[in-house]
Specification:
six-stranded mixed beta sheet, alpha/beta, 11 helices, 265 residues, 15% strand, Lyase 2-enoyl-coa Hydratase, Chain  A, domain 2, 2 domains, three-stranded mixed beta sheet
């Protein structure tokens, strides 16, 4: 059994190696409150070392993914000066860092509003599945604000040129445009089609060894941050370790014996 923290803003369901996290503040279109940020971080910390957990799925209740930051939190922080705003804003950046570096495959299913902080979460997913009618955007500049913690992840996801256009115009766009930009991988029409695509992707993920996936994800992320030579040296070391580890032995033996490896059921 996986031990999960108690949450008020999230619905959690773990089964079959998959943790489903549902953002559950439907009255505010699942706006990202400081409490929700804290609860998500607590969940990520609880599952980080759970190798039996192969994928983490994030979706939203009430037909929306996430409409961005909670304006009520911002108003409350105003009474405590700029340091409170700084703390509030940086907490979300830390959440995005932790989400991006989860060892598990992170999948986002996107419907309705995918704005601001919701846009940021989509940018750190490994697999993003969107409804065609979802509405994406970076509304911060239209509110006199900055997409401060989101901007680096948007640039990593879709490139500087497109990130500048989206952030500096606060334009809204749908799932098809999100696919064209490289923000999402799949676009579907309606909840049944989204679920079908999700199950297809989960089946693919569950074919892969969890330890190998975690190491590969770390390698891919490091490839945009580290010099090539040292990165390849470390990758060679990681490969050698994988070949002689339990997963590597089981995977190669299963191939020779023409059977599924243990982790694939």
């Amino acid at each position: 059994m996986i031990s999960l923290p108690s949450c008020e803003t999230l619905l959690l369901e773990a089964a079959g190696g998959v943790l489903r996290i549902t953002l559950n503040r439907p009255d505010s279109r699942n706006a990202m409150s400081l409490q929700m940020v804290g609860e998500l971080r607590a969940v990520f910390a609880a599952v980080r070392d759970q190798r039996r957990l192969r994928a983490v799925l994030i979706s939203g209740s009430g037909g929306h993914f996430c409409a961005g930051g909670d304006i009520k939190d911002m108003a409350a922080a105003r009474a405590h000066g700029s340091s409170a705003h700084r703390t509030l804003n940086r907490a979300f950046g830390t959440l995005l860092e932790e989400a991006q570096r989860l060892p598990q495959v992170l999948i986002c299913v996107l419907q309705g509003a995918v704005l601001g902080g919701g846009f940021g979460l989509a940018c750190v997913s490994d697999i993003a599945i969107s409804d065609a009618q979802a509405q994406f955007g970076l509304p911060e500049t239209s509110l006199g604000l900055l997409p401060a913690q989101i901007a680096p992840f948007v640039v990593q996801r879709i490139g500087l040129t497109q990130a500048r256009r989206l952030a500096l115009t606060s334009v809204r766009f749908d799932g098809r445009e999100a696919e064209r930009l490289g923000l999402v991988h799949f676009v579907e029409h309606g909840a049944p089609a989204l679920e079908e695509r999700l199950q297809q992707q989960l089946a693919q993920v569950l074919r892969c060894a969890p330890g190998a996936n975690a190491a590969t994800k770390a390698l891919l992320l490091a490839s945009v941050e580290q010099p090539l030579g040292p990165l390849l040296d470390q990758a060679a070391e990681d490969f050698a370790n994988a070949v002689t580890a339990e997963e590597g032995i089981e995977g190669t033996l299963a191939f020779v014996q023409k059977r599924k490896p243990a982790w694939a059921g």
